[in-house]
Amino acid sequence: MKGNDAIGEGAVRAGCRYFFGYPITPQSELTHYLAKRLPEVGGLFLQAESEVASINMVYGASAAGARVMTSSSGPGISLMQEGLSYLAGAELPCVVVNMMRGGPGLGNIAPSQADYFQATKGGGHGDYRLIVLAPNSVQELFDMMLKAFDLADKYRNPVMVMADGIMGQMMEPVIIRDEYEVQIPPKPWAATGMAYHEGKNLINSCYVIPDEMEIHNLELQKKYNEIRPREQVCEDFMLEGAEVVLVAFGTASRICMKVVEKARDKGIPVGLIRPITLWPFPEKYIGEAAGGDKIFLTVEMNMGQMIEDVKLAVNGKAPVYHYGRLGGILPDARDVLTEVERLYRGGGAR
Amino acid sequence: MKKMFSRPKSLKDIPFHYCPGCTHGIAHRLVAEVIDELDIRGTTIGVGSVGCSFSTISYFDIDMLQGSHGRGPAVATGLKRVLPDRVVFTYQGDGDLAAIGTGEFIHAATRGENITCIYINNAVYGMTGGQMAPTTLLGQKTKTTPFGRDKDVSGFPIKVCEILTPLEGAAYVARVALHNPKSIIKAKKSIKKAFEIQIKGLGFSLVELLSTCPTNWGMSPLEAVKWLEEKMIPYYPLGEYKTCGGGDL
Ligand SMILES: Cc1ncc(C[n+]2csc(CCOP(=O)(O)OP(=O)(O)O)c2C)c(N)n1
Ligand code: SF4
Description:
Chain A has helices at 3-13, 28-40, 51-63, 74-79, 81-89, 116-120, 138-155, 165-169, 210-230, 250-265, 283-289, 306-314, 333-344, and strands spanning 18-21, 44-47, 68-72, 94-100, 131-133, 158-164, 202-203, 234-237, 244-247, 270-275, 277-279, 295-300, 320-324.
């Protein structure tokens, strides 16, 4: 299955019946898939007039209680930031796929990870969090859509799935587990009309009185503080005995797996930690892995964004370095290996 | 004794925060009365906007959504597509609908989205303190057009009904005014017709209500009503601009 189709099919299997979006490369193929697939299952694919409209349509559909998603890339995700802040503020669940591309500005359509800060540190205004997932295989793209919708409903919070053009194009076998049963929780809070529930339902993020706004914020923070320890997910690869620990997500983590194998062949003890949730960041696992005389190297397709979270997690227990390529260029495994060797032999920061 | 006048059920029993002489309150009341009369309180969902009327979400005693500035018609689209048998309306000011939200209302109309927009044209930005709105008349003084709106600088006031009329998806387009009892009765009829057209599934409907903002116009409520009649109506002619299949309602 192609990555784009896996995202689409995963969403459908997760019970998502509504998609609102606006064309942009490199995520258009996902929309082509859903434009065909959603009507087959009685769902709706609607091309909006802009990403601003898309995310607000998502807001309306989510408020009505539906499982709903949108997808976009770079400039389009930027346009959605106000809407995402409203969704988070009004505690509305939804899933947003970001097929990251090179930026800033119009940039290009090549794969990138430069939207890490935007996704994990806010992007829109106000104190809010998105749950951010970072798959690295087609199987995971599929599975993660199921998980994304569950998390969104469980916490009434927008969830972002971060992928890139390479993953969308990748062809890999996917096992579709039949036993997966979609359980969409009841949504007694949804604005479906007063004839359908007791009392009046209000979907809102506006609290004019500062005391009330603070209380609402504290409640949001309480939720984020529940999510933070509970939902951290990461995976490690040949971490046993590693003296150099690579940290990478998504496409970069696949490259790093090759680097680890090649380095081990050469007798250099290298391992990989791959964050699967970018928020909450797997700080606990990385923090615990940071004992001894290890060196950390984050490999990212950006100028060094996730490194800040790795540094916080490592908390001074080990030096943390960064290797990155920008503008849509993939790190080359050989170059990463050279950097690993240099650091291993005592070369510090450049 | 027969009670001649009472609060519509669709309005909560809380005082409006609007300034004296502001017609937002009248517009709320008309919408609420129509909801009551059509007996659709349990199946109607409103989308509030950002402007002086941000509290509509609290005032109406029906399910409500707070929409972001200008995006009401997109929010209403998402809602209506999921719940096609409900009645969905937006309540938006002229800054909200006709400036920042221009794309959303036009495209909701072109899609023939089965929603109703209640559009308050008071020729000014009320909430943010009296700046120029897209509907501010030429020569009209506002905080950001202190010498009067100059067409060479700010262009011309936007006529929403006239823009919508040729769009095939627009089923009902009307402009009414809230400056005297006779007009208010007409306004209510238009709002009712818009909702009925939505219930019949005929397409997009919008009612533009010419309204007052005495505070930011720097006038007494009486002067404001007079200004609306003498200055706004000639530029924004009243009437039903389009009524699709609405003749036999
Ligand atoms: C994205 C965004 N930009 C600007 C604002 C600030 N703002 C709030 S209300 C408003 C204008 C409202 O004017 P109008 O729609 O005419 O409604 P009125 O207050 O006159 O009833 C503006 C610009 C905002 N809330 N959001
Ligand atoms: S500022 Fe104007 S629009 Fe706002 S409540 Fe006062 S009179 Fe009404």
